[in-house]
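User: Sequence recovery, please. Input:
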């Protein structure tokens, strides 16, 4: 840390500063302070106030980011100060290593309205504006501290406050999904699709998990529709996902054409937002209960037995539209949200606005017995992955999604 070197002795006129050393202030030695005003010689659009300094009125700039009081050699002449204390204090401009040239300091009585305080004032060479520090401004009641009740929630805070939201797979209250099935389409009972013996134990484990969670049950009685299964490895996990190949069954299931927001609509809606959170619903479709009269078309075969779904499953052709519309309707009265598939995006133009919306959404999900996946949730950020990368400044496609376009080889044939 560099220190300011005291000035040399010189004779001055009566009303000028005497630079001769009177004392050396050891308490301020080796100290460093910040001044937030970027150019102390050029200040505009910053609040100013007249303060009595030893009964002389001086104009001060209120700088809440400054830790020191500053006055110039030109202004200090008005105070008829004959002697200054030498200082080894270093004062830096905001975001800079530039030092102000100090010539000393003095103690003065500051009076504003009926408040009087004793403070130290540093003297800087030149004719700069006088600066009042944050602490001095607060003591003179020129500024007031206001602590917001909108405490910024972290992921841990959310999990502690909404414990039920992070436990298992939910089941949306008061809603059942009825599939619109065309009974004129003849049922198809597909042959059982066999798979490697070494996968059987994992399939059995997954079936047991789904059965315990109330997602599937053994199919009993007449089974007009039977679909085969496909075994898929879960990403980064030593587990299997059971996917039902419902291509034949989907021929009889009528689609529900609910609108999904486009990327342009999403970007337009998010205009001006600065704070974001994303909630991922845990095994999204499985949180919606199927109507009893719709379950029969979801029967699938395994090496153990025939099973059918009690919840909406991923193989149904209209599942995405049904789920999108269900969540949209559930949260329709809350502003500042977007839902796309199993993701719910919360956004706000301010932290307070965002936090209010976040709590509304979490309360609604909890009251409706829905659950979320904490590993895929993101809270309180200015940049988020949602249909691409979104921040308070821009939107850009995710590199992994745009890589295929960039790496696409130029066609060498016309056909």
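Assistant: Recovered sequence (415 residues):
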């Amino acid at each position: 840390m560099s220190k300011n070197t005291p000035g040399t002795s010189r004779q001055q006129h009566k009303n000028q500063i005497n630079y001769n050393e009177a004392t050396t202030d050891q308490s301020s030695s080796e100290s460093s302070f910040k001044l937030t005003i970027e150019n102390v010689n050029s200040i505009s659009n910053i609040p100013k106030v007249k303060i009595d300094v030893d009964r002389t009125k001086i104009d001060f700039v209120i700088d809440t980011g400054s830790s020191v009081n500053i006055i110039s050699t030109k202004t200090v002449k008005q105070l008829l100060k004959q002697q200054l204390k030498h200082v080894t204090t270093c004062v830096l401009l905001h975001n800079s290593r530039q030092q102000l040239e100090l010539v000393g300091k003095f103690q003065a009585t500051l009076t504003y309205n009926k408040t009087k305080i004793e403070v130290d004032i540093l003297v800087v060479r030149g004719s700069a504006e006088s600066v009042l520090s944050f602490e001095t401004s607060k003591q003179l009641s020129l500024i007031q501290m206001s602590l917001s009740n909108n405490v910024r929630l972290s992921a841990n805070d959310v999990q502690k406050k909404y414990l039920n939201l992070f436990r298992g797979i939910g089941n949306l209250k008061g809603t059942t999904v009825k599939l619109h099935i065309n009974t004129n389409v003849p049922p198809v009972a597909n042959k059982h699709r066999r798979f490697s013996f070494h996968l059987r134990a994992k399939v059995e484990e997954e079936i047991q998990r789904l059965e315990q969670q109330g997602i599937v049950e053994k199919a009993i009685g007449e089974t007009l529709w039977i679909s085969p299964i496909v075994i898929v490895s879960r990403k980064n996990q030593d587990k299997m996902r059971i996917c039902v190949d419902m291509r034949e069954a989907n021929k009889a299931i009528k689609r529900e054409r609910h609108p999904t927001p486009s990327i342009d609509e999403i970007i337009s809606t998010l205009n001006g937002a600065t704070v974001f959170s994303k909630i991922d619903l845990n095994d999204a479709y499985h949180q919606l209960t199927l109507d009893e009269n719709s379950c029969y078309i979801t029967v699938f075969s395994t090496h153990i037995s025939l099973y059918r779904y009690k919840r909406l499953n991923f193989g149904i052709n209209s599942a995405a539209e049904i789920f999108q519309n269900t969540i949209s309707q559930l949260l329709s009265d809350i502003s500042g949200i977007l839902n796309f598939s199993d993701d719910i995006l919360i956004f706000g133009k301010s932290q307070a606005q965002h936090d209010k919306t976040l709590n509304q959404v979490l309360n609604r999900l909890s009251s409706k017995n829905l659950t979320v996946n904490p590993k895929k949730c993101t809270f309180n950020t200015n940049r988020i992955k949602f249909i691409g990368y979104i921040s308070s400044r821009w939107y850009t496609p995710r590199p992994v999604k745009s890589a295929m376009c960039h790496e696409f080889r130029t066609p060498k044939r016309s056909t």
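The two ends are 72 Å apart (CA to CA).
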